[in-house]
Amino acid sequence: MIQADVLIVGGGGAGTSAALHLARRGVRVVLLERGLVGGQATGVNYGGVRQQGRHPAGIPLARKSREIWSRIRELTGSDVEFDPSGHLKLARSAADEAELLRWNTLAVEHGLRPRMIGRNAIRELYPHFSDVVIAGSLMEEDGSANPRLLAPALARAARKAGADIREGHAVTGLEHDGTDFRLLANGTRFAAPWLLNCAGFWGGEIARQFGEAVPIEKLHPNMLVTEPLPYFLRESLGVVGGGLYMRQIARGNIIFGGGRGESDAGITFTRPRPDAAFEVMRSAIAVIPRLEHAMVIRSWSGTDGTFADHFPVLGPSRTTPGLIHAFGFCGEGFQTGPGVGAVLSELVMDGVTDVPLEAFDIGRFTAAQIAV
Ligand SMILES: Cc1cc2nc3c(=O)[nH]c(=O)nc-3n(C[C@H](O)[C@H](O)[C@H](O)COP(=O)(O)OP(=O)(O)OC[C@H]3O[C@@H](n4cnc5c(N)ncnc54)[C@H](O)[C@@H]3O)c2cc1C
Fold first, then answer.
1. Is there an atom of ligand 1 within 6 Å of 322 CB?
2. Which of 67, 85, 98, 146 has the most C-beta neighbours closer than 10 Å?
């Protein structure tokens, strides 16, 4: 039996960041990951580090995380290719433009500094856009990072700080004996008074085992990447209403996404869908005509958990003291991963965090069920 202070299930961005923040505070932490750290959503996503477009309830968490991103190299001792190149969200209709203006007003109230780019300026500054683009909103401090690098970097730093991080350890047994959580993984037993549920989509199953069933669904964003092209796109791009996002990496390849891939029940890996790929290629060319002859060299997808209200579950369990949930980040949790780990460490060590978590409370589902 291995006794720890805190057990973490899941080695994505949330779990590895929590391990690092806790280990740096002298906590005995064990993280159990059934595959490789960053092997699921955190390692295969688009890499957007974006605050733009977030619901006001999610902005404080995104801001806390953005502050950590600005020192991610010092924190991890690694280069995760974080590039605050800006995020530009495009309007293709007057209604889209009104939506950007509405969000910008809200965002300013929440301490962000987006900037509207009007019809004339967008032509002048971004000659590669077609006429369908009529305006944009620029969040200069947003950008991107390399998803392959984040969780391994956080895990390396956590190990260096003393965390016990075990890959290839699927948690197959889970119980609470009234004092400690007792977990079984690879034939080894682990015990601790705290358990952090950072298991991504599969966090729903862990919550269910503690009497907190949640209506989580799988989310499989469809991703593509082109051959390297001459460099022309500095900002990461999105469009009002979603369905298309793209960025160009320094090597020249354009990574873009939109639509959904698919998966089979019981299998933890996913595949992209050709119909979604063709649809997003058409949308991309409509916005940037020069992409017409770009060759797509790879397509993929991944699994995140999502909820109808588009908020994650983040905060203490309502049934089991010592259990804290952090899962179901609805396709937006790469940016927030570093901040989620900080929040979890604060909840364990200080009992409070400066990030409002009401909207993310797991109790909202029970409350909704009672209301029905
Ligand atoms: C294709 C795609 C594109 C995306 N693009 C973006 C983007 O541009 N920007 C953004 O902010 N977000 C994006 N997201 C969302 C983001 O990737 C996720 O919200 C985030 O990475 C979730 O992190 P996590 O740590 O909660 O989960 P994960 O990264 O899924 O980690 C959970 C881990 O738990 C492990 N696990 C589960 N069950 C067990 C068990 N029983 N025992 C041991 N280990 C277990 C899994 O193996 C997994 O490694 C995207 C997601 C996808 C799939």
1. no
2. 85
Cβ of 304 closer than 6 Å to ligand 1, yes or no, is: yes
What architecture does CATH give domain 2-67+147-215+308-371?
A: 3-Layer(bba) Sandwich (3.50)
pLDDT one-digit tens code per residue, 203-254: 999 999 999 999 999 999 999 999 999 999 999 999 999 999 999 999 999 9
- 358: three-class secondary structure by DSSP: helix
Q: Provide φ and ψ at 354, rounded to 5°.
A: -85, 0
Sign of CA dihedral 362, 367, 368, 370: positive
pLDDT tens per residue, range 288-307: 999 999 999 999 999 999 99
Ligand 1 atom index nearest CA of 222:
1
CATH topology of domain 84-142+218-306: D-Amino Acid Oxidase; Chain A, domain 2 (3.30.9)
Per residue in 173-182, pLDDT (tens digit) is 999 999 999 9
Counting from 1 in the atom list of ligand 1, the atom nearest the Cα of 200 is 27
Where do we find the tokens 């996404």?
257
Query: What are the boundaries of each domain within the chain?
Result: 2-67+147-215+308-371, 84-142+218-306
